[in-house]
Write a structure and sequence with these properties.
Blueprint: H1 8-19, H2 26-40, H3 47-65, H4 77-97, H5 102-121, H6 126-154, H7 157-208, E1 212-217, E2 222-225, H8 253-265, E3 275-280, E4 286-297, E5 303-312, H9 314-363, H10 370-400, E6 409-411, H11 413-430, E7 434-439, E8 447-449, H12 451-467, E9 473-480, E10 486-493, H13 500-503, H14 527-537, E11 541-547, E12 551-559, E13 561-562, E14 584-588, H15 592-602, E15 608-612, H16 615-624, E16 629-632, H17 641-651, E17 660-664, H18 669-677, E18 682-685, H19 690-706
Parallel strand pairs: 7-9, 14-15, 14-16, 16-17, 17-18
Antiparallel strand pairs: 1-2, 1-5, 3-4, 4-5, 6-8, 8-13, 9-10, 10-12, 11-12
Helix pairs in contact: 1-2, 1-5, 2-3, 2-4, 3-7, 4-5, 4-6, 4-7, 6-7, 9-10, 9-15, 10-14, 11-12, 12-14, 16-17
Length: 707
């Protein structure tokens, strides 16, 4: 089929040109379509070619004079449009020059169009674009040579137009590509310059950072070290290429092994946690580095290495070690102090047991001369004073160690205050002082409080008032707050008073109003400090209001909870309800004075007391004789009281269930609890109080009788 007799294939080609979406610029799309139309449709004369040529000239002129009239949008759009138009132009040029059938021409034409469309799509990759353009440019040169020869032979005017227009379109396409490539190159250069500046800034930060920044590849080979790594080498660059494993403590390789293995195997590797690593300097100095490691990935997400930011924390680790050592030493010192106080308490209470006990017995001897009775009273008073000092030291030690535990029980506040007043009434009367009791009529009947500790606080304030008051009187008062949520106990005296500069430190340990060598009043200076500690444990406050030479008022308030009355207990004579004369008691103590004292205390009741001087002797006695009660000392050479108790419970069938009461100078709460946990039934502290001892005997004897 001749070119002058176009068929349906040429018409389809023209429609494809007009419908091409790549030709988003209407002028260029129309120009391309006219080229194909001029090549495919036969005509005579110069009318249509002239119109088409004029349109192309206007288009070129408009782009030269008004560049802004060109296609808008991204820089890559214009060359893509020109390349597509050039493809159609070459197709028209081919149809113009060669006299082939439309069907044969279609394949070649589509080849040219598709080739230029591929180039347009691939425009973003300049290297590939120029590679693909080489062959088409050679083909264009060949076509132009052939077209010139055909023009000389044929001389059709429309072919001349096509021949002139097609190279122009191709030229415009190549010019657009060149312009855009040049712009891309400038943009790339600007981006590289900006990237270089950014890299320089970050490198400057890394080089000035006191932290060590390292980067290594997937095999662990170092690629970068910041200047802060100069502790490892005079020039950190000397370490480039060495494996990071060389700088880790062999004992800590396992901690980082999983991360390094995942990195080398190309497996996902999560950043490590912040941790401290041991390593050495070239001089053999042990240092500690703290930091974390993060993987580095390329654009495809593959790990290409890792980066770590490390900080030298050697000084901090040394400080932490020193702190731990000091803490351990302080804890050991606290334990040693507690043990020392416990031992001292035991060693002091043991002889005091004999002193106080026999002084009491001495005073009960009928017909004792008056002087002897007075001397016995002095011995008893002095021993009690010494015991008070020991108790103060122990109480303060427990407060400092936070070992004081409260035991709230129902307490009658009115009866409590009366009891405290009765305890010091004789002492006040001996000094000619009046003792007045004031209680609020709104006092609750019962409150929940630790009576023993509350008594210790109030008694300390009251005895101090009597001690430091030479004339006048002392008043103790008790009242509740308006909402009945707190109890206030105050002790008011007419004594020496407290200067303002001293009042603020009265509640500090070892503090006294008069600490000179010529002071008139003794004491450890711990009483008020202990009272303050106990009040604060109860959630209350303590204070003083004083005027020197006029008197003082010491007070404390504690929060209270209302309670119900306890069950009635009928206790009069501690021995009531039990036939004590029929009781057999095993008295176990390695100190003969203590055994003799207990025997003397129980002698009026005609009890049977069997003595044992050691734990082993107690077990031997329990194997062969049945006892109703065993009084057991704790600290004894050889077998102590706890071991003897365990042996009796396990091996002595006659006394497996016999009540065992600890009779010991070990009175700390944890020591008492250890006795009960070790199989004992009760505990009596030394120095031994006769009433407490008889009460325990009567209590356990009553249980024996009930059984």
């Amino acid at each position: 089929m001749s070119i002058r007799r176009p068929g349906k294939w040429a018409a389809a080609l023209a429609r494809a040109a007009l419908a091409d979406p790549a030709a988003s610029n209407p002028a260029l799309g129309a120009a391309s379509a006219l080229i194909v139309f001029a090549a495919a449709v036969p005509f005579a004369g110069w009318t249509l070619p002239a119109i088409w040529l004029a349109a192309m000239l206007v288009l070129a002129l408009s782009e030269a004079v008004w560049p802004e009239a060109g296609p808008k949008g991204p820089d890559a759009v214009r060359p893509c449009i020109w390349l597509t138009s050039a493809g159609y132009s070459l197709a028209g040029l081919y149809l113009t020059i060669f006299h082939t059938g439309a069907a044969q021409t279609l394949g070649v034409t589509l080849f040219g169009v598709v080739m230029f469309q591929i180039l347009a799509r691939d425009y973003e990759r300049p290297r590939r674009l120029w590679l693909h353009l080489t062959a088409p440019l050679l083909a264009v040169v060949t076509v132009q040579v052939a077209a010139g020869a055909d023009l000389l032979l044929g001389g059709e005017p429309w072919r001349l137009v096509t021949l002139l227009a097609s190279p122009y379109v191709v030229y415009r396409a190549l010019r657009a590509v060149h312009h855009n490539l040049d712009g891309s190159r400038r943009q790339a250069e600007a981006a590289l310059a900006q990237l270089g500046e950014s890299e320089a800034r970050y490198r400057q930060l890394a080089e000035r950072s006191p932290d060590i920044i390292i980067r290594y590849d997937v095999e662990g080979r170092l690629e970068y070290l910041s200047p802060a790594a100069s502790r490892y080498a005079a020039d950190p660059s000397d370490l480039i290429g060495r494996n990071v494993r060389e700088f880790l403590d062999p004992c800590e390789l396992d901690r980082n092994a999983a991360f390094l293995q995942d990195l080398a195997a190309g497996q996902p590797a999560a950043a490590t946690d912040q941790s401290v690593w041991r390593t050495w300097t070239p001089d053999g100095e042990l240092i500690f580095l703290e930091g974390a490691t993060s993987p580095i990935s390329d654009d495809d997400g593959r790990h290409v290495g890792a980066m770590a930011i490390l900080r030298d924390v050697t000084a901090r680790v040394a400080l932490e070690d020193e702190l731990r050592r000091k803490t351990a030493e302080a804890e050991a010192a606290t334990v040693a102090k507690s043990q020392f106080l416990a031992n001292m308490s035991h060693e002091i209470r043991t002889p005091l047991t004999g002193v106080i006990g026999f002084a009491r017995l001495l005073r009960t001897i009928p017909g004792l001369p008056a002087d002897a009775g007075r001397y016995a009273s002095r011995i008893h008073t002095s021993a009690d004073a010494l015991l008070a000092v020991v108790n103060d030291v122990l109480d303060f030690s427990k407060l400092e160690a936070d070992q004081v535990q409260l035991d709230p029980q129902p307490l009658d506040p009115r009866a409590f205050v009366e009891e405290i007043a009765d305890l010091v009434r004789d002492q006040a009367a001996a000094k000619g002082l009046s003792l007045t009791l004031e209680t609020d009529h709104d006092l609750p009947a019962w409150i929940a409080a630790d009576g023993a500790r509350l008594r210790q606080i109030a008694l300390n304030l009251l005895t101090n008032a009597v001690k430091f008051t030479a004339e006048g009187g002392v008043t103790i008062s008790a009242e509740t707050s308006s909402d009945r949520s707190s109890l206030r106990i105050a002790v008011r005296d007419t004594g020496i008073g407290v200067p303002a500069e001293v009042a603020g430190r009265l509640f500090q340990r070892f503090s006294q109003v008069d600490g000179s060598a010529t002071r008139q009043h003794g004491g450890t200076g711990l009483g008020l400090a202990i009272s303050k500690g106990l009040v604060e444990i109860m959630g209350g406050r303590i204070g003083v209001e004083s005027t020197p030479g006029v008197g003082s008022t010491f007070w404390f308030t504690i929060p209270i909870a209302h309670a119900t009355a306890p069950a009635e207990t009928a206790v009069s004579d501690p021995t009531a309800g039990a036939e004590l004369s029929a009781i057999r008691i095993l008295m176990v103590d390695d100190v003969s004075v203590n055994r003799e004292l207990v025997a003397a205390m129980l002698e009026p009741f005609d009890l049977t007391v069997v003595e044992a001087a050691s734990g082993a002797a107690a077990v031997e006695a329990a194997l062969h004789s049945r006892f109703d009660l065993i009084l057991m000392d704790l600290q004894m050479p050889g077998m102590d009281g706890l071991a003897a108790t365990a042996a009796i419970r396990a091996n002595c069938d006659l006394n497996r269930l016999t009540p065992i009461v600890a009779l010991s100078a070990n009175i700390l709460p944890e020591q008492v609890q250890a006795c009960l946990a070790g199989g004992m039934n009760d505990h009596i502290g030394k120095p031994i109080d006769a009433g407490e001892l008889l009460g325990a005997i009567g209590r356990w004897a009553a249980r024996r009788d009930a059984a």
